[in-house]
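step: validate -> pass
step: tokenize input -> pass
step: predict -> running
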Amino acid sequence: TFKVIIVLDATLVLSGAVLTSYVGVTGLVHRMALDQVLPQFFLKKSRRNTSHRIIITFFLLCSSILLVTKGSLLSLAGVYTISFLGVMTLFGFSNILLKTRRKELKRTYRAGWLTIIIAILATSVGMVGNVIIDHYNLLYFMQYFIPTVLLVVLMYLRIPIYRTILQVLNNLMGRFLVWRTIVIDRITSLTEQRVVLFVRGGDLRRLHTAFNYIVNNESSRSVVIFHLYPNPGQSDEEGIKHSLEALEEIFPMLRAKFVAREGKFGPEIVEAVSKEFGVPTNNIFIGAPEEKHAFSIQDLGGVRVIF
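step: predict -> pass
step: emit ->
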């Protein structure tokens, strides 16, 4: 009877862990697909509004690693350990980036430099130790890690890849006219996707930073510059327009549309602008919220802080 209770308890605990992993992976992959880091294939929903493609893909990956490791619990535990400690190490590096690049960003908790460095060293030592115990764990991990990184790189280089294909098809001319049209349509659909950039004023340096980010990290070449002012006397429309004239010379590949309205920035205006322009919130870019703001970055529905 005691053994049965232990088995039932273990089953419930493991079921909770499996459910949690599916929920976490579904949210993560969906967000990465929204940000165009992973293929849009994963955004497809079922009739019940579930992300079945993500769930099935994750199930197949989990099943495949079980086959690759031949069901060895030690190997599975080793791969999980490397993955977990790797993510924890990246959290440390992310914290360093926040400290150096987003000093003014409003945040609830702050970690000291010594804490971060010790954490990174501890997780790194843990990974190295795990590899020393059994180097096959690293090989199993790389079989999944490398293809994932390559997929992300391919997504990042979509426009150059499409243009290379288009150049090849142009050279081959008529034989692949239909394929050429498909490639052109695909490039157009990617570059025509709009992004919204909220700006406070016409600081050319900050606007240049934002435009440079969009050119280097986004497929979109259509930008809506959105300026909010508390009253007409405090608007910086002329300064922004003057800066945009200079930026159009520096970034001729971008098409900028300027919109200025009276209002106060916050979660409500983000949602309204998203609906008005048909732009998902993850394609809305802002500067770092400061301590004086009543809202936090989490309240803004997934906007991106880019300067």
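step: describe -> Residues 192-305 form a domain with the Rossmann fold fold (CATH 3.40.50.620).
step: cleanup -> pass
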